[in-house]
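#struct-help
A.M.: can someone run this one for me? Single chain, 229 residues.
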Amino acid sequence: MKIDILTLFPDMLKSVLETSIMGRAEKTGHVEYNVINFRDFSLDKHQKVDDTPYGGGAGMVLQVEPIVRALRSIDGYETAEKILLSPQGTPYHQQTANTLAQKKHLILICGHYEGFDERLSAYVDREISLGDYILNGGEVAAWAIVESVVRLRPGVLHNEASILEESHEDGLLEYPQYTKPAEFEGAKVPDVLISGHHGKINEWRAAKRLENTAKKRPDLYAKWQKKDA
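D.P.: on it. Structure tokens below:
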């Protein structure tokens, strides 16, 4: 998989992409990262990439031209999945991560200032938002998307089977997890987990997934009930 990220702040991402699972994935050849500063594609002598909005208003708007020039500099950009990171985008979910993990080439475009010139939307395939809140720029969203996608690629995680049991993978939260010691300040690990009876452990975990979701995310539980009906 190849992932290109267009940003005004490449240093915010480069160190993250070299760390932990994401860094190891690149070293083992499972993914290739390319961070592009689209300021380098400005035709302005001062490398300006924003301007005041037509019609007036506060803040500055990112110009379409330098971003499109940066896009067109990427080999294979025509067939890549081009994603604009924007608070106006579709909320990001695990199902979207699974879809993007099947792609061979992703291009993520990070915004800043008051947003993008609307004409940029004609050059992308989708807009994605991390949620209903505002960040200073799209770099945090890019980081989150890259990490959630890369970990799903075959061979990246040592224990790929664990992905199937994670929260949100099938619409439910994960069951509670415990490790040593078996008792801490009077709180004990449930007896079933140390019983060695795998059938009962699986039953307990299945029940706890439902209980956990109903308690912590009743919205997800309601969706799951509707889907399972």
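A.M.: thanks! The helical segments are 11-17, 20-27, 64-72, 94-100, 139-150, 198-216, 218-228.
D.P.: also worth noting: The mean pLDDT is 92.
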